[in-house]
Amino acid sequence: GASVLLLRGCLVLLAFPIYLLSFLGLWEPFCRKVFFPFILDKIGAAHDKKSKKYKLELFRNLSDFRSPSGQLRLLEIGTGSGSNFQFYPSGCKVTCTDINPHFQEGLSKNMKKNQHLHYEQFLVAAGEDLQQVPSGSVDVVVCTLVLCSVHSVSRTLKEVLRVLRPGGAFYFLEHVAAKHSSWKYFWQQVCYPTWKLVFAGCCLTRELWKDLEEAKFSELKVQHIRLALPWTPIEPHIVGYGVK
After folding, report:
1. pTM to 2 decimal places
2. In this structure, how many other beta carbons lie within 10 angstroms of the beta carbon of residue 173?
3. Could you give the 3-state DSSP secondary structure of residue 207?
4. pLDDT at 121
5. Any idea which fold 2-243 has?
6. Which stretch of 62-66, 131-135, 210-214, 231-235 has the lowest confidence by average pLDDT?
7. Predicted confidence band at 231 (pLDDT cuts at 50, 70, 90)?
8. TM spans, by residue (predicted)?
9. What is the DSSP annotation of 18-73?
10. Distance (Å, rounded) from C-alpha 19 to C-alpha 110?
11. What is the pLDDT of residues 12-44, one digit of tens each?
12. List of E strands, the chain
């Protein structure tokens, strides 16, 4: 515990300008509008390379959840720049949501690259509050690297279940807390406060598989995986889907 506090203090000193900007109320708007979209584009590209084979496997059965009419209505929470579009089946009707509206450049680029999809609308909304989406109106909800930063995981999962039609599915790929006895978990604890501030509320030590198990899915498939990201604290991951 003492070692964690000491090393946390060292990180605070290193990141003091950011803490000062946060105290003055200047960091959050700069982070949301400039820093986070930029850094997510850079880190996201590396993460996408590592996770591509898992996403290909994860999303290969999306078409199984088409509605009786044959349509596949998909809602993505925390769309960001749209890096998941490439994995969605042709003709899929996509509604994008994100709490941060400043991903336009990357989002437009990925929309142009993936014209096999029908883009319905973009909603500025938090995962805990999807009131603009009618209950039971979508076949699939997708959420990747987002549950780490929502204010309430349980409320987000309640909203997921509300907007899904019966028989619809929730797909996820998220980084989670490492084993408590590991060095990785030790460094997650050290980095936690500064990482959360710098990376727009991203929490390193959430045991998200427990939240998913507590949600009322009729069927839940969760796989614990490693993406070989040795220089970052966002490891390990879980991947899978739950059926309403």
Report:
1. 0.94
2. 25
3. coil
4. 92
5. Rossmann fold (3.40.50)
6. 231-235
7. confident
8. 6-27
9. HHHHHHTT-HHHHIIIIIHHHHHHHHHHHHHHHHHHHHHHHGGGGGGG--TTS--E
10. 34
11. 999 999 999 999 999 999 998 889 888 887 777
12. 73-77, 93-98, 118-124, 138-144, 164-175, 219-225, 237-243
Please give the structure tokens belonging to residue 165: 């039609």
Sheet hosting strand 73-77, strand order edge to edge:
118-124, 93-98, 73-77, 138-144, 164-175, 237-243, 219-225
Phi, psi of 16 (to 5 degrees): -55, -40
Q: Enumerate the domain spans of the chain.
A: 2-243
Nearest to residue 178, comparing CAs of 235, 228, 240? 235
Rounded Cα gap, residues 11 and 47, in angstroms? 24
- Between 160 and 47, whose confidence is greater? 160
Q: Which two tokens stand for residue 159?
A: 């909203």
Of the chain, the percentage scoring pLDDT greater than 70 comes to 100
Residue 113 amino acid letter: K
- Are 205 and 234 in contact by the 8 Å Cβ rule? The answer is no
